[in-house]
Every structure is written in structure tokens, then in C-alpha cells.
Amino acid sequence: MAEKGLGTPSAGTALVRVGPSRVSSALARNRLGVSSIVFFIVSAAAPLTVIGSGAVLTFANTKTIGIPIAYAAIAVVLGVFAVGYVAMSRHITNAGAFYTYVAQGLGRVPGVGASFVAVVAYNAMQVGLYGGFGAVLAGHLKAWFGWDVAWWALALMAWLVIALLGVMRIDFNSKVLAVLLTAECLIMLVFNVVELTNPADGTVAFDALSPSNLITTGVGALLVTAVTGFVGFEGGAVYAEESRDPKRTVAQATYIAVAFVGVLYAISAWALTVAIGPGKIVGAAADQQADLIFNFNAGFLGRWIVDIGRILIVTSLFAALVSFHNTVARYLFALGRERVLPAGLGSTNRRTGSPYVGSLVQSALAVVVILVFAIAGLDPLIDLMYIGTTYGGLGVIILMALTSISVVGYFAQRKDIDENAWRKYVSPAIAAVLLLVVLYLTLDQYSTLLSLPAGHPAVWILPSSFAVFGLAGILWGAYLRSARPRVYAAIGLGANSVIGRASQDLPKRTDSSGVLPLLTSPGLASAPVRHEVFRVGGDHPVGPVATVLSEAFGTGDIAKWLVPDPEDRRRIYPAYWAMLVEHALGVGEVFAGGELSGVSVWYPAMFGPPNAAPRDIDQRVDLTCGPYAPRFHALNHAVANAHPTTPHHYLAFAAVLPDLQGRGIGTSLIQHRLRELDIANVPAYLEATNRRNLALYVHLGFQPMGNPIALPDNGPKLYPMWRPASVHRGL
Amino acid sequence: MAEIAGSGPVTGRAPSSSSHLRLADEFFLVAHNHDADTIVPRLHDTGMELGLAGALLAELVLDRRLEVADGRVIVFDPSPPNDQLAASMLRDIVTEPPHSIRVWLEYLSQDARDKVGSRLHVAGHLAQVRQRKWWGGPALLYRAVNAEQALIPEVRLHDLLARPHPGMQLAKISIDHKLMQDVTLAALAHSTGLLSALLWYHGPHRARSQLDEMRRALPAPLLELTKQTEAAVGDAVLGRRR
Prior knowledge:
The complex is a heterodimer of chains A (731) and B (242).
Chain A: H1 2-7, H2 22-28, H3 34-45, H4 47-62, H5 67-89, H6 98-105, H7 108-145, H8 151-168, H9 174-197, H10 219-230, H11 249-276, H12 281-288, H13 292-298, H14 303-337, H15 356-376, H16 380-413, H17 421-444, H18 446-450, H19 457-483, H20 485-489, H21 523-526, E1 533-536, H22 542-552, H23 557-562, H24 566-587, E2 589-593, E3 598-605, H25 617-625, H26 629-641, E4 648-656, H27 665-680, E5 684-688, H28 691-698, E6 703-704, E7 709-710, E8 717-723
Parallel strand pairs in A: 4-5
Antiparallel strand pairs in A: 1-2, 2-3, 3-4, 5-8, 6-8, 7-8
Helix pairs in contact in A: 3-11, 4-10, 4-11, 4-12, 4-14, 5-10, 5-11, 5-16, 5-17, 6-7, 6-16, 7-8, 7-14, 7-15, 7-16, 7-19, 8-14, 8-15, 9-11, 9-14, 10-16, 10-17, 13-14, 14-15, 16-17, 22-24, 24-25, 25-26
Chain B: H1 23-30, E1 32-34, E2 39-41, H2 45-62, E3 66-69, E4 72-75, H3 84-95, H4 101-109, H5 112-122, E5 126-132, E6 138-144, H6 147-150, H7 152-162, H8 177-192, H9 195-198, H10 204-216, H11 220-238
Antiparallel strand pairs in B: 1-2, 3-4, 5-6
Helix pairs in contact in B: 1-2, 1-8, 2-4, 2-8, 2-11, 4-11, 7-8, 8-10, 8-11
């Protein structure tokens, strides 16, 4: 059941509708525009941290100067990746998490593997940042006040605050974040201007931007560092259901954010090489580490402006810590709700509504790692921050490569989704190839990244740990498939796993006579449909009219109950309906609408029961329906016995060709006759074939009456409905 | 899933006396601590608002006005119910183009707390208290007129869940209207995460397994409604903004 629900594409989301709807406009007021989403994405990337410590550490550790061009290259790769990613995010739920894409595109078992990789990768990034935070703040405290504080003490303080914030669900006020982010970007621009106007040796050197840097050894290390700087850009997809225009807002915001961040990173990193000098940057970076950017600018700018920069890098690191902490907590929450991980992870704090179990688990893991690094006396910047975050970056590259392949797989399985081939296949395929190349280069040159000899065990242990986690996830997924099929079916649905389908995924209506969309239905405007209604004369050929009825009633509960075998149904139905239409054309009143795509059949019942069937119907049903005849008899008798005795007109059948349903043809068809009946002051009666239709008839003034008509052998129910004379409600 | 109850219409007699508390009223009372001078929420804002929205929709289902199937809200009977708030909601639902249940939950959650609070105020269950907050102007708060009476729904819920009901026939839930309302209230408390506050004394474990059985005996529309509420609360956690 869930399998089907997942496969059903939704045309956009159900949240935004056209037309003057009070509900839609009330909800639209809270929707996000492009600029807010860009802002969320960029603030998660923490730009000053990336340049002030990430880029500088890359110079020091890889001993190459190519990181500026690597940022630019990765921005292009991510731009291509984002095309397919955003396109798919519109069609799935829980769209902020990579494993959802894998679960829906490649299968649920690999999806669980991807979820394990993701949890490890994001945890590594978050914990790695603690090292950066502690070391950078310790350096500043020493520079300002001469205090000697151990990095791990500061990291533990930050850890305590973040653990509390996570449980109490205090998010930073978005205005505070906006001010900080703007200040960060401004100060980076100021630094860039200073650096570019004071080049080393008096010449602006473009060495660092030369594409030749991308074919030197060690490029893999540069690329993975560059990816690390962008992580967080995938978060924009979370807002798909909350954005103003789900089709465009998130896509535009993601492209803008990737482009903005890419240009900012590339220029800032390049400006740094210009100022220090391409030949000296590696040595200077190794020497001064995260202080490099401030030490240089302090020579040209007022002390206070550099101090502001120092404060901002600390706040930026802290914001990034909070953001990654929340990402991990939400991942664990979603997996807990899906019961893939223990269900306790999916519980929320009663007072604050935070995913507090997931948050506590992340905090517990982080404190263990911080303590291990502190006790082992490892370097916080190189060993914890640089290695930790690039290790996480490696995981994210793996996830993005898998996601690109999943996008192709997803759209290949669902041909009916309305996206163009560039978004569905071409760009995700290009992105997959590029990301696999990046992944290969990274793995190939992992020793450069760690600046360890190639034979060192860490060089293969770290990357292969992802294979171990992924494999563990795949095994767990396979176990779930065989042992807990319900859990398995809901993998990748996040919080919606409790309903077993995506929130925006409404199952298609499959009404046997689903003829009555509301007049306000948005489909009405979308195609030119002729709503004129004609009375079908008694000499009209039977065939075309009977086709409409047999097509429209060919699916649904009643049809399944009457003739369970679809093959037999296709044989029996035309003959059966031809018999009824032949009778109706002679005795009843047959109307056609939408150029004979909809048909309604009325019988007057003013003086006794309606003459709704030929006199010899039992014999003719026996002839046409063969072994299924008893069911048809039962249906006819049940309907006839339940018929009211008050004078009325009887709407025996109303049907619209399945392809044209939902365009108002049925409504206008029935309304036409109801108006005439209103003028004549005559009540109307019908049997609705299912409860959904019943609601639609209610809009035309019908009311459910009495008990449903139960068909024998546990068959479906019919719902008799009565419309008193001269009821104008709904018309 | 809910074979026991089947998917037939909600049956049983709706309570007609106006003094009777409706489902959202009970959820409101249960979701607050009642002191002598004020009431303090026991549940976070999102859970409270979505829970009340779910309870308001469930009221209409219990009144046999609405139908919830496949994530859609369907009007079963447009005649206005006795309660004014429910009647105005039903009018909204009838006049709007079709929306999914999640849209209705989100829409109703925007002001569900005010609406249900003022309904309880008008009915004389809550009194308004004006409090001056030290950081700003006066705030309008409620307190229970009769704190003991305000605890009645909670006590009933506690009795329903914490006490074992060995002989209880689950099929009764789909017939007995009062019991159906109680089970729906318990299911909504479970969906929003409020349950842990209500079962502080008896271990919540047995209560949860008992509630699981009872929930499955609910009529399909009510069960779907509580599940959708749970998913909406979960999505709010993942959606970062609320």
C-alpha cells in the first residue's frame, strides 16, 4: 500500500492553490520567499569560518595553493547537482535528507545504508567544528587578554551551551543571525579589498586561480575541502513545502546561494594568496594557522575592525555548530519516527517540542570525541577540525554521488512526472559523473589531505569506515525488509511514516462515477471544455453513450465486486451497459455534456417506482453476464428495494470518461437537470457509489438518507441520497 | 488496518446537551496545568496548536459532519452542528475548494488556541485574568473557574488508560459515542506527545499498549485524523521554522 502511495506523483504540492481561497491566502502569508531561503542556506555555510580557518588550514595541510579554483570548480559541480536534486525534492517528503532520495530512487535498503553514512558524516563535521571553535577562541583570548585557556575547556563550554540549546529548542532569532551574517560578509569584503590592494611584491598574482591547479597532485584534497565549505546548501530543499512557489522558490534560492557562496569563497581565498604571495602562503598558513587572515589585515586596518572580525569568526563557528547539531538531531529524529533506529529517538520534548533524544545522543557522542582528543593531546585545528570536517565532507560527496544516481533512477521509474529531460536525466547524470570523479580523486590522494605518508593506516581506515557504516546500514535495511515489513515500507518518509505516505501525496481519485468536481475546482480553468448539455434523443445510436458509462464505471469497488476479473469485466461491461442505455434512450431521459464525454440518465418516478430497467432484465443479465449474473441481480434488487416511494426524479447514472474527470463536466451535466427540477418543484434521488462521491453530491444539495444499501457477500455499500425540492444550496 | 471498526460511518448518538464539553475543550483542559490563579501549558506551542486543530476537526467527525479519507477532508453533511465554532468551521470547509487534511490542520492551528479558549470562556469554564508582565504590558490569561471540574477530563482519561480493562470489548468504541470521544482524546494526546504528562503515576508502558489497541478500534476517519496530527507535529520538528 505504501509502495503505491509513494509512486503517486503529485502535481506540485497541495498547499498552494489558485483561486480566491481564504485558507490558501491565510497560509501563503507565512510562506518563505527566495531571499529568506538564500539566507538560511548561506548562514548554514558559515562563510567566515570556511575562509578564516578552513581555507587557511588547507594551504597549510596540502601545501598547495589551488583551493580558490577548487571552490569555483565545486560551485559549478554543485550547481549541476542542484538541478536534479531540487527537481526531485518537489516530489518527495522529508526532502532535506539525502537518504530519502536514495531510498526513493535506488531502493529502501541502500537508503538505510545512506542514512547511516549521513549520520556519521554530519556528526564528524559537527564534532570537528568544536576543535576549531576551541582553538580559535583560545587564540583570541590569548591575543586580547593574554589568558592561556586550553582549547578543550572552551570547546566543552560551547558543547554545554549547544546541548542545552538543542534540548530547549531555542533557535537563534533570525534577525540576530541576519545581522551576524551580513557583518560576516561585509568584513570579508573589506578584508578582500585590503588584501587585493596590498599585494605581496606589488603584483597581483593569478597563480591560485589557474585551472592548472586542478590537475596537480593533491587536487583531491582540495576538492573535498571545498565541498566541506558548501555543506548546508542541501538544506534549502527542506523548505519546499513552506515556500511561496514550490516549483521555483527553492530552486532559485539554491542556485543563488551556491553561486554567491562559490564566488565569495573563490575571491576571498584568492585574495589571501595575493596578499601573502603565492609562494609564501603555505609557510605562513602553517605558521600562523587560523590567525593568518587577522594578522595580515591588522597591519592595514584599525585594530577594532580586526577585532570585530575575530568576534565574528567565533560567532560564525558557533552558528555552524548549532546548525550541524540540529541537522544531526533531526536526522536521528526522522529515523526514529520511521522506526529504522529505536523509536525513542523519534520522541519530542513535551515542553519545548525539540527532538531532544536525538539531540542528547549527538551531544553525548561529541563530548566523548572532545575528551578523547583532549586526553590524547591531539591538535584541535589540524587533527580535529581539518581532518574531522573533511572526513565529513568525504561522506557528503559519497551521499551526493548516490543522490544524483538516485534522481535518475527515481525519474526513470516515474515517467508521468512533468519535468524536462535536462532536470530528470541529463544534469543528474553529469553531476553523478563529476562527483564520482571528485570522489575518486579524494580517495586517491587521501594521504595528501592528511599529510601522512601513503602507507599510513589512517589513509585507508578513515575512508573505508564509510564503507563499513554503509554496509551495516544495508544489512540492517535487508533485515527490516524481511522481519519488519511495515517499518521497511515507510523508510524515507520521515515524520509521515505514521501515515505511510508523503503528506503532499494524495491518492488519485478512482471513483467509478467520479463526476462531480466542485465548481471552484481549479481544473475547470485549465482546459477548454465545453459545458453545454444536450438531451440525447431516442434515436441516438446506443454505442457511444454506452461506452461512456462502461468506461467510467469500469473501475472502483462496485465494478470489482460485480466482476472481480478485469479481463471478464472488459468483455461483459459493454454489453451490459448497452442493454441499460438502450432502455434508457427509450424510456428515460439521457443527457450528454462535454461533447459526449459525460452522460447522465434520469427516470421520472412521480407515479410509482421508476421504470429504470427493461422488464426482462433478469433474463438478459443471465445472458450477458454468465457466471457473474447473481451479483448483478443482487445489485439491481437491492437498489430497487431501497427506492423511496415519495414522488421524485431518479438520477440512475452519471458518468464522465475517466480522462476528462475533474473538469466540471459532470457538475454542469447534473446541475442543468436540477435547475429544471427546482423550477418544477420536484425532489431528486440517487445512490452514491462511494463515500467520496457522496460528499460531492452534498455540494449539489443532496443529503444522505437512512442506512447505506449493503450489497451481499461483504460487498461495497451504496449511499442513498435525497434532494428536497427547490434546494439552492451549492448551486 | 482498522478491520474491527470497519470504515462505516461514525455511529452512535451525539450528545446534545450544550453543557457538555466538546473534544477540543477537553484537549485544552487536559493540555494545561490548573493552578488556583492561572493555567500553565503542559505542551509546547506547536503540539498544542496542532492538537487543538485536530480536536476541532475530530469534533466535526464525531458530529457526523465530516469524513476523513486518504488525507482528504470531505463534507458528509453540511447542516450546521449545535456548536457555533464547529458550525463556522464547517461553513469554511464547505465553501472552500477541496484542501488536504494537512492544510486544514495548519490553517486551523493558527488560531485554534484563541478560539477554543474563548469558547471555554463563553461557556463559563474559564475566567480571564489580567496579568502585568514585568517585561511588557498586560497579558490576558485564563484560569479555570472551577479547578476541580477542569480536571475531570484528565481523570477520566487516566482511568481509561492507566486502569486495565480486561473485559472491555474494543468493538464498543465504535458504538459508544462517549467512549469514542475519550479514545480520540487519548489518541490525540499520544500524537502530540502530551501523554507522558498524563500518566505520571502509573507506568506509561501498559497505558501505551492499551491505547494502541483502543486506537486501532477507532473508526477509520478518527484514526486517520490522529495519525495526520502526529505526522504534522513531526513535520514541524523537521521543518525547522516553527
